[in-house]
Amino acid sequence: xxxxxxxxxxxxxxxxxxxxxxxxxxxxxxxxxxxxxxxxxxxxxxxxxxxxxxxxxxxxxxxxxxxxxxxxxxxxxxxxxxx
Length: 83
Hints:
By secondary structure, the protein is an alpha+beta fold. It is built from 1 helix and 3 strands; from the N terminus they run βββα. The chain has one helix at residues 43-61, and strands at residues 2-5, 22-24, 35-40. Strands 1-3-2 form a 3-stranded antiparallel sheet, with no helix packed on it. It starts with a strand and ends in a 22-residue tail after the last helix.
């Protein structure tokens, strides 16, 4: 699982803390930027925190929430597995 963030102001490639999270990838939905932040959620954490993470995103930005989308195996990069 990953949480992808698409800031309205765009992605800041010069921010050292956030630059490892930047992906350039074709969007899965119309209106989603091809450059966005991807935060990987490790499998062990997904079991405990997955539902809480989804609820937090919905409760704080429900009007911006795109929902859940299944991606093909191998979609996450190695660095996403350790975010």
